[in-house]
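Retro notes
What went well: the complex prediction finally ran end to end.
Inputs used:
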Amino acid sequence: MSQAATAMDEWTERQKDVLDAVLDLLVTGGDAVTTAAIARKANCSKETLYKWFGDRDGLLAATVRWQASRVRAGNFDAQHLDASQLRESLEAFAVNWLSVISSRTSIALNRVGISHAGSGKSGLGRMVLANGRFAIGERLKPLLEAGRANGLLAFDDTETAFRTFFGLVGRDVQIRLLLGDRLETTEAEIARDAARATQQFFALYGAPQTQKPTREG
Amino acid sequence: MSQAATAMDEWTERQKDVLDAVLDLLVTGGDAVTTAAIARKANCSKETLYKWFGDRDGLLAATVRWQASRVRAGNFDAQHLDASQLRESLEAFAVNWLSVISSRTSIALNRVGISHAGSGKSGLGRMVLANGRFAIGERLKPLLEAGRANGLLAFDDTETAFRTFFGLVGRDVQIRLLLGDRLETTEAEIARDAARATQQFFALYGAPQTQKPTREG
DNA sequence: GAAATTATGTACCGTACGGTACGGTTCGGA
DNA sequence: TCCGAACCGTACCGTACGGTACATAATTTC
Protein backbone atom coordinates (compact mmCIF):
# COMPACT_ATOMS: atom_id res chain seq x y z
CA MET A 1 0.00 0.00 0.00
CA SER A 2 2.61 2.55 1.01
CA GLN A 3 4.64 1.34 -1.95
CA ALA A 4 1.69 2.00 -4.19
CA ALA A 5 1.11 5.41 -2.68
CA THR A 6 4.69 6.51 -3.19
CA ALA A 7 4.68 5.18 -6.72
CA MET A 8 1.42 6.96 -7.40
CA ASP A 9 2.48 10.45 -6.38
CA GLU A 10 6.16 10.11 -6.95
CA TRP A 11 5.80 11.42 -10.47
CA THR A 12 3.90 14.19 -12.14
CA GLU A 13 1.20 13.54 -14.73
CA ARG A 14 3.63 14.34 -17.51
CA GLN A 15 6.11 11.85 -16.12
CA LYS A 16 3.42 9.21 -15.88
CA ASP A 17 2.66 9.83 -19.53
CA VAL A 18 6.29 9.08 -20.28
CA LEU A 19 6.11 5.87 -18.26
CA ASP A 20 2.99 4.89 -20.14
CA ALA A 21 4.85 5.45 -23.37
CA VAL A 22 7.58 3.11 -22.17
CA LEU A 23 4.97 0.50 -21.31
CA ASP A 24 3.44 0.92 -24.73
CA LEU A 25 6.77 0.37 -26.41
CA LEU A 26 7.54 -2.63 -24.23
CA VAL A 27 4.20 -4.24 -24.96
CA THR A 28 4.43 -3.59 -28.68
CA GLY A 29 7.54 -5.72 -28.89
CA GLY A 30 8.16 -5.04 -32.55
CA ASP A 31 10.87 -2.42 -32.27
CA ALA A 32 13.58 -2.09 -29.70
CA VAL A 33 12.92 0.07 -26.66
CA THR A 34 15.69 2.60 -27.15
CA THR A 35 15.83 5.91 -25.34
CA ALA A 36 15.36 7.63 -28.67
CA ALA A 37 12.22 5.64 -29.39
CA ILE A 38 10.87 6.43 -25.93
CA ALA A 39 11.51 10.13 -26.35
CA ARG A 40 9.85 10.10 -29.75
CA LYS A 41 6.83 8.21 -28.50
CA ALA A 42 6.45 10.41 -25.42
CA ASN A 43 7.08 13.65 -27.30
CA CYS A 44 9.81 14.63 -24.96
CA SER A 45 13.55 15.05 -25.24
CA LYS A 46 16.11 12.49 -24.25
CA GLU A 47 17.67 15.08 -21.98
CA THR A 48 14.46 15.30 -20.01
CA LEU A 49 14.35 11.53 -19.76
CA TYR A 50 17.78 11.45 -18.21
CA LYS A 51 17.02 14.38 -15.96
CA TRP A 52 13.91 12.69 -14.57
CA PHE A 53 14.98 9.08 -14.37
CA GLY A 54 18.75 9.08 -14.25
CA ASP A 55 19.50 6.54 -16.93
CA ARG A 56 17.80 3.93 -19.03
CA ASP A 57 17.67 1.38 -16.23
CA GLY A 58 16.17 3.95 -13.88
CA LEU A 59 13.51 4.60 -16.46
CA LEU A 60 12.71 0.91 -16.77
CA ALA A 61 12.64 0.51 -13.00
CA ALA A 62 10.28 3.46 -12.72
CA THR A 63 8.08 1.86 -15.35
CA VAL A 64 7.90 -1.40 -13.42
CA ARG A 65 6.95 0.43 -10.22
CA TRP A 66 4.43 2.57 -12.06
CA GLN A 67 2.72 -0.45 -13.54
CA ALA A 68 2.80 -2.22 -10.19
CA SER A 69 1.21 0.76 -8.48
CA ARG A 70 -1.94 0.45 -10.52
CA VAL A 71 -2.30 -3.31 -10.49
CA ARG A 72 -3.22 -3.63 -6.85
CA ALA A 73 -6.63 -5.19 -6.67
CA GLY A 74 -8.92 -4.81 -3.71
CA ASN A 75 -8.26 -7.18 -0.88
CA PHE A 76 -10.80 -9.59 0.47
CA ASP A 77 -12.31 -9.46 3.91
CA ALA A 78 -11.16 -12.49 5.77
CA GLN A 79 -13.77 -12.48 8.51
CA HIS A 80 -16.78 -14.77 8.76
CA LEU A 81 -15.71 -16.96 5.89
CA ASP A 82 -17.86 -19.84 4.87
CA ALA A 83 -16.84 -22.49 2.42
CA SER A 84 -18.47 -21.00 -0.64
CA GLN A 85 -17.06 -17.55 0.09
CA LEU A 86 -13.60 -19.01 0.45
CA ARG A 87 -13.98 -20.92 -2.76
CA GLU A 88 -15.17 -17.84 -4.57
CA SER A 89 -12.33 -15.76 -3.23
CA LEU A 90 -9.74 -18.33 -4.22
CA GLU A 91 -11.27 -18.61 -7.65
CA ALA A 92 -11.23 -14.85 -8.00
CA PHE A 93 -7.58 -14.81 -7.03
CA ALA A 94 -6.86 -17.49 -9.60
CA VAL A 95 -8.73 -15.63 -12.31
CA ASN A 96 -6.94 -12.43 -11.47
CA TRP A 97 -3.54 -14.08 -11.42
CA LEU A 98 -4.08 -15.91 -14.69
CA SER A 99 -5.30 -12.71 -16.31
CA VAL A 100 -2.24 -10.85 -15.10
CA ILE A 101 0.36 -13.36 -16.26
CA SER A 102 -1.43 -13.68 -19.60
CA SER A 103 -1.44 -9.96 -20.21
CA ARG A 104 0.98 -8.54 -22.71
CA THR A 105 2.11 -6.06 -20.09
CA SER A 106 3.11 -8.72 -17.60
CA ILE A 107 4.84 -10.75 -20.27
CA ALA A 108 6.82 -7.75 -21.44
CA LEU A 109 7.85 -6.67 -17.95
CA ASN A 110 8.83 -10.17 -16.92
CA ARG A 111 10.93 -10.47 -20.04
CA VAL A 112 12.71 -7.26 -19.20
CA GLY A 113 13.31 -8.40 -15.64
CA ILE A 114 14.62 -11.76 -16.78
CA SER A 115 16.91 -10.21 -19.34
CA HIS A 116 18.31 -7.89 -16.71
CA ALA A 117 18.74 -10.74 -14.27
CA GLY A 118 20.78 -12.49 -16.93
CA SER A 119 23.03 -9.45 -17.28
CA GLY A 120 24.27 -9.40 -13.74
CA LYS A 121 22.23 -6.48 -12.45
CA SER A 122 19.34 -8.15 -10.67
CA GLY A 123 17.49 -5.05 -9.52
CA LEU A 124 14.74 -5.16 -12.11
CA GLY A 125 14.24 -8.88 -11.77
CA ARG A 126 13.86 -8.57 -8.05
CA MET A 127 11.41 -5.73 -8.54
CA VAL A 128 9.26 -7.70 -10.95
CA LEU A 129 9.36 -10.62 -8.57
CA ALA A 130 8.35 -8.44 -5.63
CA ASN A 131 5.37 -7.03 -7.50
CA GLY A 132 4.38 -10.32 -9.09
CA ARG A 133 4.95 -13.60 -7.36
CA PHE A 134 5.58 -12.17 -3.88
CA ALA A 135 2.83 -9.57 -3.99
CA ILE A 136 0.24 -12.17 -4.87
CA GLY A 137 1.60 -14.36 -2.10
CA GLU A 138 1.27 -11.68 0.53
CA ARG A 139 -2.24 -10.94 -0.63
CA LEU A 140 -3.36 -14.53 -0.71
CA LYS A 141 -1.80 -15.84 2.49
CA PRO A 142 -4.17 -13.97 4.80
CA LEU A 143 -7.07 -15.55 3.00
CA LEU A 144 -5.59 -19.02 3.35
CA GLU A 145 -4.94 -18.46 7.04
CA ALA A 146 -8.42 -17.15 7.56
CA GLY A 147 -9.70 -20.29 5.89
CA ARG A 148 -7.64 -22.36 8.25
CA ALA A 149 -8.76 -20.36 11.25
CA ASN A 150 -12.35 -20.99 10.29
CA GLY A 151 -11.73 -24.71 9.93
CA LEU A 152 -12.14 -24.77 6.17
CA LEU A 153 -8.55 -25.53 5.26
CA ALA A 154 -5.92 -27.71 6.82
CA PHE A 155 -2.22 -27.10 6.38
CA ASP A 156 0.87 -26.59 8.47
CA ASP A 157 2.91 -24.17 6.41
CA THR A 158 1.13 -21.29 4.75
CA GLU A 159 3.95 -20.77 2.32
CA THR A 160 3.81 -24.37 1.15
CA ALA A 161 0.06 -24.23 0.75
CA PHE A 162 0.31 -21.02 -1.21
CA ARG A 163 3.01 -22.35 -3.49
CA THR A 164 0.86 -25.37 -4.24
CA PHE A 165 -2.02 -23.12 -5.16
CA PHE A 166 0.33 -21.05 -7.26
CA GLY A 167 1.46 -24.15 -9.12
CA LEU A 168 -2.04 -25.47 -9.64
CA VAL A 169 -3.16 -22.14 -11.09
CA GLY A 170 -0.16 -21.16 -13.15
CA ARG A 171 1.09 -24.56 -14.29
CA ASP A 172 3.04 -24.02 -17.53
CA VAL A 173 1.24 -20.90 -18.66
CA GLN A 174 3.80 -18.28 -17.73
CA ILE A 175 6.91 -20.01 -19.06
CA ARG A 176 5.16 -20.85 -22.31
CA LEU A 177 4.02 -17.29 -22.85
CA LEU A 178 7.41 -15.89 -21.92
CA LEU A 179 9.06 -18.17 -24.46
CA GLY A 180 6.72 -16.96 -27.16
CA ASP A 181 4.26 -19.81 -27.31
CA ARG A 182 0.95 -18.79 -28.82
CA LEU A 183 -1.36 -19.90 -26.04
CA GLU A 184 -4.93 -18.80 -26.36
CA THR A 185 -6.02 -17.46 -22.99
CA THR A 186 -9.64 -16.54 -23.42
CA GLU A 187 -11.70 -15.35 -20.53
CA ALA A 188 -13.67 -18.58 -20.61
CA GLU A 189 -10.51 -20.69 -20.50
CA ILE A 190 -9.18 -18.69 -17.60
CA ALA A 191 -12.42 -19.08 -15.68
CA ARG A 192 -12.41 -22.82 -16.28
CA ASP A 193 -8.78 -23.23 -15.26
CA ALA A 194 -9.30 -21.12 -12.16
CA ALA A 195 -12.24 -23.26 -11.14
CA ARG A 196 -10.27 -26.45 -11.73
CA ALA A 197 -7.27 -25.20 -9.77
CA THR A 198 -9.48 -24.14 -6.87
CA GLN A 199 -11.23 -27.47 -6.83
CA GLN A 200 -7.92 -29.29 -6.84
CA PHE A 201 -6.62 -27.09 -4.06
CA PHE A 202 -9.63 -27.96 -1.93
CA ALA A 203 -9.07 -31.61 -2.69
CA LEU A 204 -5.57 -31.29 -1.31
CA TYR A 205 -6.00 -28.82 1.54
CA GLY A 206 -9.69 -28.76 2.30
CA ALA A 207 -10.37 -29.67 5.91
CA PRO A 208 -12.63 -32.63 6.61
CA GLN A 209 -16.05 -31.54 7.74
CA THR A 210 -16.05 -32.23 11.45
CA GLN A 211 -12.44 -32.32 12.47
CA LYS A 212 -9.26 -30.51 11.59
CA PRO A 213 -6.38 -32.92 11.02
CA THR A 214 -3.26 -31.61 9.36
CA ARG A 215 -2.12 -32.78 5.99
CA GLU A 216 1.35 -32.44 4.53
CA GLY A 217 3.75 -34.24 6.85
CA MET B 1 15.69 -39.50 -30.37
CA SER B 2 16.24 -38.71 -34.03
CA GLN B 3 16.55 -35.07 -33.01
CA ALA B 4 19.22 -36.03 -30.53
CA ALA B 5 21.00 -38.17 -33.07
CA THR B 6 21.15 -35.38 -35.65
CA ALA B 7 22.24 -32.91 -33.04
CA MET B 8 24.87 -35.33 -31.83
CA ASP B 9 26.60 -35.95 -35.13
CA GLU B 10 25.70 -32.76 -36.87
CA TRP B 11 28.92 -31.17 -35.67
CA THR B 12 32.52 -32.19 -35.36
CA GLU B 13 34.30 -32.47 -32.04
CA ARG B 14 35.93 -29.13 -32.58
CA GLN B 15 32.57 -27.55 -33.23
CA LYS B 16 31.14 -29.15 -30.12
CA ASP B 17 34.00 -27.61 -28.19
CA VAL B 18 32.92 -24.25 -29.53
CA LEU B 19 29.34 -24.88 -28.47
CA ASP B 20 30.55 -25.87 -25.03
CA ALA B 21 32.41 -22.61 -24.85
CA VAL B 22 29.20 -20.76 -25.65
CA LEU B 23 27.40 -22.65 -22.92
CA ASP B 24 30.17 -21.80 -20.52
CA LEU B 25 29.90 -18.12 -21.32
CA LEU B 26 26.12 -18.21 -21.03
CA VAL B 27 26.22 -19.93 -17.68
CA THR B 28 28.88 -17.61 -16.31
CA GLY B 29 26.55 -14.70 -16.74
CA GLY B 30 29.07 -12.10 -15.66
CA ASP B 31 30.21 -10.80 -19.04
CA ALA B 32 28.22 -10.40 -22.20
CA VAL B 33 28.20 -13.26 -24.69
CA THR B 34 29.69 -11.44 -27.65
CA THR B 35 31.06 -13.18 -30.69
CA ALA B 36 34.50 -11.89 -29.80
CA ALA B 37 34.25 -13.36 -26.33
CA ILE B 38 33.11 -16.69 -27.75
CA ALA B 39 36.00 -16.79 -30.21
CA ARG B 40 38.45 -15.93 -27.46
CA LYS B 41 37.07 -18.56 -25.12
CA ALA B 42 36.96 -21.24 -27.81
CA ASN B 43 40.38 -20.34 -29.25
CA CYS B 44 38.99 -19.93 -32.68
CA SER B 45 38.45 -17.03 -35.01
CA LYS B 46 35.25 -15.13 -35.50
CA GLU B 47 35.43 -15.93 -39.18
CA THR B 48 35.29 -19.63 -38.39
CA LEU B 49 32.32 -19.02 -36.13
CA TYR B 50 30.41 -17.37 -38.93
CA LYS B 51 31.46 -19.99 -41.43
CA TRP B 52 30.21 -22.81 -39.24
CA PHE B 53 27.07 -21.32 -37.73
CA GLY B 54 25.99 -18.55 -40.06
CA ASP B 55 25.49 -15.76 -37.60
CA ARG B 56 25.23 -15.17 -33.88
CA ASP B 57 21.66 -16.41 -33.67
CA GLY B 58 22.58 -19.55 -35.53
CA LEU B 59 25.33 -20.13 -33.03
CA LEU B 60 22.95 -19.70 -30.12
CA ALA B 61 20.40 -21.99 -31.76
CA ALA B 62 23.07 -24.62 -32.30
CA THR B 63 24.03 -24.30 -28.65
CA VAL B 64 20.47 -24.89 -27.54
CA ARG B 65 20.19 -27.98 -29.72
CA TRP B 66 23.56 -29.22 -28.58
CA GLN B 67 22.62 -28.93 -24.94
CA ALA B 68 19.24 -30.52 -25.62
CA SER B 69 20.88 -33.47 -27.36
CA ARG B 70 22.74 -34.40 -24.21
CA VAL B 71 19.91 -33.98 -21.74
CA ARG B 72 17.72 -36.85 -22.90
CA ALA B 73 17.34 -39.19 -19.99
CA GLY B 74 16.47 -42.82 -20.35
CA ASN B 75 12.80 -43.54 -20.69
CA PHE B 76 10.84 -45.77 -18.37
CA ASP B 77 9.26 -49.06 -19.29
CA ALA B 78 5.54 -48.66 -19.07
CA GLN B 79 4.57 -52.32 -18.90
CA HIS B 80 3.51 -54.21 -15.78
CA LEU B 81 3.33 -51.12 -13.62
CA ASP B 82 2.34 -51.46 -10.05
CA ALA B 83 1.54 -48.57 -7.77
CA SER B 84 4.93 -48.26 -6.17
CA GLN B 85 6.73 -48.43 -9.51
CA LEU B 86 4.51 -45.70 -10.87
CA ARG B 87 5.13 -43.58 -7.82
CA GLU B 88 8.85 -44.06 -8.07
CA SER B 89 8.85 -43.20 -11.75
CA LEU B 90 6.82 -40.06 -11.21
CA GLU B 91 9.05 -39.04 -8.38
CA ALA B 92 12.11 -39.65 -10.53
CA PHE B 93 10.58 -37.49 -13.24
CA ALA B 94 9.93 -34.77 -10.73
CA VAL B 95 13.45 -34.93 -9.35
CA ASN B 96 14.88 -34.81 -12.84
CA TRP B 97 12.71 -31.90 -13.89
CA LEU B 98 13.44 -29.88 -10.77
CA SER B 99 17.15 -30.54 -11.17
CA VAL B 100 17.02 -29.38 -14.77
CA ILE B 101 15.14 -26.14 -14.19
CA SER B 102 17.37 -25.36 -11.22
CA SER B 103 20.55 -25.83 -13.20
CA ARG B 104 22.48 -22.79 -14.26
CA THR B 105 22.47 -24.11 -17.79
CA SER B 106 18.72 -24.29 -18.01
CA ILE B 107 18.33 -20.88 -16.44
CA ALA B 108 20.76 -19.34 -18.88
CA LEU B 109 19.22 -20.95 -21.95
CA ASN B 110 15.70 -20.05 -20.90
CA ARG B 111 16.80 -16.47 -20.38
CA VAL B 112 18.25 -16.38 -23.87
CA GLY B 113 15.10 -17.85 -25.34
CA ILE B 114 12.91 -15.41 -23.47
CA SER B 115 15.00 -12.45 -24.50
CA HIS B 116 14.79 -13.53 -28.11
CA ALA B 117 11.07 -14.08 -27.86
CA GLY B 118 10.79 -10.50 -26.66
CA SER B 119 12.69 -9.28 -29.71
CA GLY B 120 10.26 -10.53 -32.28
CA LYS B 121 12.23 -13.53 -33.51
CA SER B 122 10.69 -16.43 -31.65
CA GLY B 123 12.82 -19.22 -33.03
CA LEU B 124 15.03 -19.69 -30.01
CA GLY B 125 12.16 -19.44 -27.58
CA ARG B 126 10.25 -22.09 -29.43
CA MET B 127 13.33 -24.27 -29.46
CA VAL B 128 13.87 -23.97 -25.72
CA LEU B 129 10.22 -24.71 -25.20
CA ALA B 130 10.36 -27.76 -27.43
CA ASN B 131 13.32 -29.19 -25.56
CA GLY B 132 12.05 -28.20 -22.12
CA ARG B 133 8.39 -28.11 -21.34
CA PHE B 134 7.22 -30.09 -24.37
CA ALA B 135 9.97 -32.69 -24.26
CA ILE B 136 9.23 -33.53 -20.66
CA GLY B 137 5.56 -33.70 -21.54
CA GLU B 138 6.09 -36.18 -24.32
CA ARG B 139 8.26 -38.28 -22.10
CA LEU B 140 5.88 -38.27 -19.16
CA LYS B 141 2.58 -38.76 -20.92
CA PRO B 142 3.21 -42.40 -21.83
CA LEU B 143 3.86 -43.12 -18.18
CA LEU B 144 0.63 -41.44 -17.14
CA GLU B 145 -1.31 -43.34 -19.75
CA ALA B 146 0.28 -46.59 -18.74
CA GLY B 147 -0.74 -45.82 -15.18
CA ARG B 148 -4.28 -45.24 -16.36
CA ALA B 149 -4.28 -48.40 -18.46
CA ASN B 150 -3.23 -50.37 -15.41
CA GLY B 151 -5.99 -48.85 -13.32
CA LEU B 152 -3.67 -46.83 -11.12
CA LEU B 153 -4.63 -43.38 -12.34
CA ALA B 154 -7.92 -41.85 -13.37
CA PHE B 155 -8.16 -38.92 -15.75
CA ASP B 156 -9.83 -38.01 -19.01
CA ASP B 157 -7.32 -35.74 -20.65
CA THR B 158 -3.67 -36.72 -20.50
CA GLU B 159 -2.56 -33.19 -21.27
CA THR B 160 -4.54 -31.77 -18.38
CA ALA B 161 -3.20 -34.39 -16.01
CA PHE B 162 0.34 -33.71 -17.14
CA ARG B 163 0.00 -29.97 -16.77
CA THR B 164 -1.28 -30.44 -13.24
CA PHE B 165 1.74 -32.57 -12.42
CA PHE B 166 3.94 -29.95 -14.04
CA GLY B 167 2.43 -27.26 -11.86
CA LEU B 168 2.66 -29.29 -8.67
CA VAL B 169 6.33 -29.99 -9.32
CA GLY B 170 7.52 -26.67 -10.66
CA ARG B 171 5.31 -24.25 -8.75
CA ASP B 172 7.15 -20.92 -8.59
CA VAL B 173 10.66 -22.30 -8.85
CA GLN B 174 11.41 -21.51 -12.48
CA ILE B 175 10.08 -17.96 -12.59
CA ARG B 176 11.86 -17.09 -9.38
CA LEU B 177 15.17 -18.43 -10.62
CA LEU B 178 14.76 -16.75 -14.00
CA LEU B 179 14.14 -13.42 -12.27
CA GLY B 180 17.30 -13.80 -10.24
CA ASP B 181 15.88 -14.92 -6.93
CA ARG B 182 18.41 -16.75 -4.83
CA LEU B 183 16.53 -19.94 -4.15
CA GLU B 184 18.52 -22.70 -2.55
CA THR B 185 17.78 -25.90 -4.41
CA THR B 186 19.69 -28.56 -2.59
CA GLU B 187 19.38 -32.18 -3.54
CA ALA B 188 17.51 -32.87 -0.35
CA GLU B 189 15.02 -30.07 -1.00
CA ILE B 190 14.43 -31.32 -4.50
CA ALA B 191 13.84 -34.86 -3.30
CA ARG B 192 11.38 -33.64 -0.70
CA ASP B 193 9.50 -31.42 -3.14
CA ALA B 194 9.37 -34.21 -5.72
CA ALA B 195 7.90 -36.57 -3.15
CA ARG B 196 5.33 -33.99 -2.06
CA ALA B 197 4.30 -33.23 -5.63
CA THR B 198 3.94 -36.90 -6.45
CA GLN B 199 1.87 -37.50 -3.37
CA GLN B 200 -0.37 -34.57 -4.24
CA PHE B 201 -0.71 -35.81 -7.77
CA PHE B 202 -1.86 -39.20 -6.53
CA ALA B 203 -4.33 -37.49 -4.22
CA LEU B 204 -5.82 -35.76 -7.25
CA TYR B 205 -5.56 -38.40 -9.94
CA GLY B 206 -4.99 -41.68 -8.16
CA ALA B 207 -7.69 -44.20 -9.03
CA PRO B 208 -9.76 -45.64 -6.21
CA GLN B 209 -8.71 -49.15 -5.34
CA THR B 210 -11.51 -51.32 -6.68
CA GLN B 211 -13.16 -49.24 -9.35
CA LYS B 212 -12.11 -46.73 -11.97
CA PRO B 213 -14.36 -43.66 -12.02
CA THR B 214 -13.16 -40.57 -13.89
CA ARG B 215 -12.29 -37.40 -12.10
CA GLU B 216 -12.09 -33.95 -13.66
CA GLY B 217 -15.49 -33.21 -15.24
C1' DG C 1 57.23 -31.89 -50.43
C1' DA C 2 54.35 -28.65 -53.06
C1' DA C 3 49.54 -27.45 -53.47
C1' DA C 4 45.27 -26.93 -51.51
C1' DT C 5 42.25 -26.65 -47.85
C1' DT C 6 41.15 -25.02 -43.46
C1' DA C 7 41.71 -22.47 -39.29
C1' DT C 8 43.66 -18.64 -36.39
C1' DG C 9 44.22 -13.94 -34.97
C1' DT C 10 44.10 -9.30 -35.84
C1' DA C 11 42.53 -5.41 -37.87
C1' DC C 12 38.79 -3.09 -39.78
C1' DC C 13 33.94 -1.31 -41.02
C1' DG C 14 29.22 0.16 -40.22
C1' DT C 15 25.76 0.80 -37.31
C1' DA C 16 22.99 1.05 -33.28
C1' DC C 17 22.47 3.00 -29.08
C1' DG C 18 23.34 5.21 -24.40
C1' DG C 19 24.36 9.49 -22.93
C1' DT C 20 25.42 14.76 -23.49
C1' DA C 21 25.32 19.53 -25.39
C1' DC C 22 22.93 23.27 -27.12
C1' DG C 23 19.92 26.45 -29.53
C1' DG C 24 15.09 27.49 -29.72
C1' DT C 25 10.45 27.65 -27.52
C1' DT C 26 6.94 27.83 -24.07
C1' DC C 27 5.27 29.49 -19.79
C1' DG C 28 4.84 31.26 -15.09
C1' DG C 29 6.07 35.05 -12.19
C1' DA C 30 7.48 40.01 -11.05
C1' DT D 1 7.60 43.32 -20.73
C1' DC D 2 11.38 41.08 -19.23
C1' DC D 3 13.63 37.05 -16.76
C1' DG D 4 14.47 32.53 -15.70
C1' DA D 5 13.22 27.86 -15.47
C1' DA D 6 11.69 23.93 -17.72
C1' DC D 7 11.42 21.54 -21.77
C1' DC D 8 11.60 20.13 -26.80
C1' DG D 9 14.11 18.74 -30.88
C1' DT D 10 18.17 17.82 -33.02
C1' DA D 11 22.72 17.16 -33.50
C1' DC D 12 26.64 15.09 -31.69
C1' DC D 13 30.07 11.84 -29.24
C1' DG D 14 32.02 7.47 -27.72
C1' DT D 15 31.74 2.89 -27.45
C1' DA D 16 30.29 -1.76 -28.02
C1' DC D 17 29.35 -5.19 -31.02
C1' DG D 18 27.95 -7.95 -35.26
C1' DG D 19 29.97 -9.06 -39.29
C1' DT D 20 33.92 -9.05 -42.95
C1' DA D 21 38.68 -9.01 -44.93
C1' DC D 22 43.16 -10.52 -44.92
C1' DA D 23 47.60 -12.24 -43.80
C1' DT D 24 49.71 -16.11 -41.53
C1' DA D 25 50.00 -20.76 -39.76
C1' DA D 26 48.60 -25.61 -39.54
C1' DT D 27 46.88 -29.72 -41.68
C1' DT D 28 45.56 -32.56 -45.28
C1' DT D 29 46.03 -34.40 -50.12
C1' DC D 30 48.25 -35.89 -54.03
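What we learned: Residues 29 and 210 of chain A are 54 Å apart (CA to CA).
What to try next: split runs per interface for comparison.
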